[in-house]
Write a sequence for this structure.
């Protein structure tokens, strides 16, 4: 898997992932309702990449992409959780969309 900054090309994949209620069940987010939500997220993530100062409650988001196929299967990052910005957490949200993804998920579980 590859971790990389988000680009505009990732908006459709992120909408596919974040519009599913099961993908936001354990997060403070609601399922996305339109592609506008994906573009708003992209603009937010890009603003964090551009900010050179450490800001209170910072967050950084990265696309998780399958190396062999180039398919974006989720996101990860680090930053202050919604419930306590004095902490820093590492977070990852992944979805399985093909048989290939199942193998990737199994490898992740074993690590």
């Amino acid at each position: 898997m590859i971790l990389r900054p988000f680009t505009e090309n990732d908006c459709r994949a992120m909408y596919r992932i974040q519009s599913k209620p099961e993908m936001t069940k354990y997060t403070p987010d609601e399922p996305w309702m339109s592609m506008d939500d994906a573009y708003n997220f992209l603009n937010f993530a890009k603003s964090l990449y551009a900010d050179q100062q450490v800001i209170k409650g910072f967050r950084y988001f990265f696309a998780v992409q399958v190396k062999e196929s180039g398919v974006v299967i989720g996101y990860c990052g680090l930053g202050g959780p919604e419930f306590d910005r004095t902490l820093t957490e590492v977070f990852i949200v992944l979805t399985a969309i093909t048989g290939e993804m199942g193998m990737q998920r199994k490898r992740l579980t074993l690590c």
Q: What stands out?
A: The chain has a mean pLDDT of 79. The domain at 2-110 is CATH 3.40.630.30 (Aminopeptidase).
